[in-house]
TrEMBL record:
Chief localization: membrane
UniProt protein name: Uncharacterized protein
Localization in the cell: Membrane
Organism: Drosophila pseudoobscura pseudoobscura
Superkingdom classification of source: Eukaryota
Name of the coding gene: LOC6897488
One CC-aspect GO term: membrane
Keywords on record: Membrane, Transmembrane, Transmembrane helix
Length: 118
């Protein structure tokens, strides 16, 4: 199943919209690709706290792939660190630390660094 900014950013900016869209799409399949985290507004990104929760998952057997474009041209050798810094730059000024840190931790649980266009 494919999800993008349209599944996360309704006019009301209620992050529950993203969760509801995820739950609807679960009926059609358990493998998800959520593309372009760069485009998801911080207020809507809060939905990923629930969607990517490994302790109380919406669907225990769902597999979720997230894509993120990074702009750092210096390879630190640590893909998780690169993803963390990129997400912090995107969402850090809009979310409080008590939301931001768990959110980034969940979406960077496992990171595969792909060079080139996704």
């Amino acid at each position: 199943m494919h999800m993008n900014i349209d599944d996360f950013a309704p006019p009301t900016e209620d992050y529950g919209f993203g969760i509801a869209q995820f739950q609807k799409k679960l009926k059609d399949g358990k493998v998800f690709r959520i593309v372009s985290l760069n485009e998801i507004p911080p207020s809507s990104a809060r939905a990923l706290l629930t969607i990517c929760d490994t302790y109380s998952p919406i669907a225990a057997d769902a597999v979720i792939f997230l894509t993120l474009q990074t702009f750092n041209t210096t390879d630190s050798g640590n893909s998780v660190e690169l993803a963390w810094k990129t997400l912090f730059e995107l969402w850090g000024t809009h979310l409080a630390d008590n939301e931001l840190d768990p959110l980034i931790t969940r979406v960077t649980d496992q990171v595969l660094h792909q060079k080139g266009k996704i």
